[in-house]
Amino acid sequence: MSALEDLFGLEGKRALVTGARSGIGQMAAEVLARAGADIVGLGSRPMPDTASRIRALGRSFTEVTADLGADLDFDAVLAEAGSVDILVNNAGQIRRHDLLDFPRADWDEVLQINLSAAFGLSQAMARRLHQAGAGGRIINIASLLSFQGGVRVVSYTAAKHGLLGLTRAMANELAPLGITVNAVAPGYIETDNTEALRNDPARSSAILQRIPAGRWGAPDDLAAAILFLAGPGASYVTGSCVTVDGGWMAR
């Protein structure tokens, strides 16, 4: 059996994590740093807490400020980030409205941040890796709404369905280049995006009754899946989606 470092070690790698200021993104940055990777955090606001946590682990942290809701030059963003071996497309927003009243602006913004930006960053990274003759890892943070319809979240559902399709389509074309593309689909996790649900006693109770594990997830519950997909031991895993949902999809 290979040593754990051969399966999961990331020494000498650099990982770009979008939305690394808090929640799942911050956790992803930390677990990859613990495995040996240096981190680039991309977000629209400063992330001093994440920077402090990564540097305390003895890894370097580079911050790139960019609004993924804008029409960005992703090649320029990657040039600012520098050499990157691992990309975690985590940044996302959700908007809740009844379908009949759903604003077009909220549709456009959610699709841009959750789907179009992930495509743009992935394409730019893949181009750079191909030019360098190097392999890499792309990990997209999907959702249970990559599989289900949900209620009052039409733009988020469309984006997350699209992100899973994008994962599979990119995997097909990038596998010959040594670049794997996979997704992690979190269940109901305690993050800013689920705060409204957790603050609604009736909705929260209904959700918990559906989860076999009987609890909301924490960002740390996703750490092992992200580390696995980022590591050298997952070189033959591509086009896959790992659900981390306490059993929700099994019901």
Task: Explain what you see.
- The protein is of the alpha/beta class.
- It has a single domain, classed as Rossmann fold (3-Layer(aba) Sandwich), CATH 3.40.50.
- 42% of the residues lie in helices and 15% in strands.
- The chain is globular, with a radius of gyration of 17 Å.
- The termini are far apart.
Q: What labels would you give this structure?
A:
Rossmann fold, globular, single chain, 7-stranded parallel beta sheet, 7 strands, alpha/beta
Helix share, percent: 40-55%
Which stretches of 5+ consecutive residues score pLDDT under 50?
Answer: none
Beginning-to-end CA distance, first to last residue: 35 Å
Helix-strand category: alpha/beta
CATH structural architecture: 3-Layer(aba) Sandwich
CATH fold field value: Rossmann fold
Radius of gyration: 17 Å
Which sheet architecture does the biggest sheet show? 7 strands, parallel
Beta-strand residue fraction: 15-25%
Report the mean per-residue pLDDT as an integer.
97
- Characterize the overall form: globular
Multimeric status of the protein: single chain
| Number of separate strands | 7
Q: How many discrete domains?
A: 1
**N to C succession of SSEs:** HEHEHEHEHEHEHHHE
What count of helical segments does DSSP give? Answer: 9
CATH C-level class: Alpha Beta
The strands making up the biggest β-sheet line up spatially as 3-2-1-4-5-6-7
Mind telling me the CATH superfamily name? NAD(P)-binding Rossmann-like Domain
